[in-house]
Amino acid sequence: MYDCFISYGTTDGEFATWVAHELRAHALSVFVAQDSLRPGIEWSAETRQALLGSNWVVFLISQASAASPYVMQEAGMALADASKRVVPVVWDMDPNQLPGWLNERQAMDLRTADAHTVRHRVTELATAVQANKKKGLWIGAAMLAALVVFGGE
Predict the structure, then answer these.
(1) pLDDT over 70 at 136, yes or no
(2) Which residues, in sequence order, are CB contacts of 61 under 8 Å at separation 6+?
(3) What is the CATH number of the domain that holds 12?
(4) How confident is the model at residue 95 (pLDDT cuts 50, 70, 90)?
(5) What is the pLDDT of residue 135?
(6) Residue 59: its pLDDT value, please?
(7) pLDDT at 11
(8) Which residues of 76-110 are buried (b: 16+ CB within 10 A; e: fewer)?
(9) Burial level of 20, CB count in 10 A (0-12/13-18/19+)?
(10) Nearest-10 Cα torsion for 9, 67, 47, 33
């Protein structure tokens, strides 16, 4: 469904939109609630579906979002699925203060980063997501080829 799901607190919406824009510039499909949800839909169900259907989940964790029950629910859902790549991103708190099991993941620490470095780090993230996506496509193609070749036996 989506290559990447961005979880964030509402006070961090501007940063979340910027990160989504940067990831989309690298040809990735990204779910970020304030841009992806259409008026009139049941937003909680749509958000759950987007999270479950995404291979990568990026948590934009600030002091404010760490206190958000929705962000913590999304963290629980993402971490319960061992196949998901979960990346916490912090900029106004020490990574050691990440809540719950997010604290067991290596965080992208942007606390001292300037604008150029932040853009570079998001580009590195996009490159990793793209590489993982291509790997998945190759595996899928190999499985399909095996079915075609060996399926008739």
Answers:
(1) no
(2) 71, 88, 89, 90, 93, 98, 99, 102, 107
(3) 3.40.50.10140
(4) very high
(5) 65
(6) 96
(7) 94
(8) ebbbeeeebbbbbbbbebebeebbeebeebebbeb
(9) buried
(10) 0
Domain count, the chain: 1
In this prediction, residues 69-80 reach a mean pLDDT of 94
53 pLDDT higher than 80: yes
pLDDT band for position 138 (50/70/90)?
very low
Q: What are phi and psi of 116, to 5 degrees?
A: -60, -45
Residues 124, 122: Cα–Cα separation, whole Å: 5
- Measure CA 140 to chain center: 22
Please answer whether residues 60 and 12 qualify as being in contact, where contact means their C-beta atoms are separated by less than 8 angstroms: yes
Domain that holds residue 8: 2-150
Name beta bridge partners: 6.
32, 58
